[in-house]
Design a protein that fits this description.
With 197 residues, the chain is α+β, with helices and mostly antiparallel strands. It contains three helices and ten strands; from the N terminus they run βββββββαβββαα.
Length: 197
Amino acid sequence: MSSNTPKILKERLYYEGRKFSFEVNYLRLPNGAEGEWECIRHLGGALAVPMTTDGKLVLVDQYRFAVKQRLLEFPAGTVEPYEEPAETIKREIEEETGYHAKQWKTLGNFPLAPGYSDEYIYAFLATDLEKLDIPPEQDEDEDINIALYTPEELEKLIHTEEIKLDAKSITSYYLARAFFEQRSSAGSRIQFGSTDD
């Protein structure tokens, strides 16, 4: 039985950066075809869909150098080698938004751009938010503004492209959408099992 895994014939290039590594390998595919394939190796990212007690979603507006424009995104950050994604996002949501979440629910995970990267996004719903009196300092390379939208307002932005959102935020919004609808039909705050320490 033939293997379904490509065989590395030659490692052509490897570069390790601050957030991810980049490699180029000469491969033989299971069908016999050979060629060079480029790949970004990434530890993964953790993302929060934060909702305030009055039903507003908390997003960040920040400049993204790669696309040369500002994007609207849910708070997120790179998973460090010593961390679990849940630890990462608890830190990131406070640093990026100044909110602390008491209630957390796992929404799922998904590959971000499997055509050229092995990065996975681990998405969480964060509720029962409290504004921190003294939020942690943001990273020096971050230029962030906070934006609040109702789910209906944000969905309109997604479809009209009036303001650009990134793919991980759009995907995570739809993963969380059922919970927004549940909250709306219940007419009160959703209660989840807390993962807060």
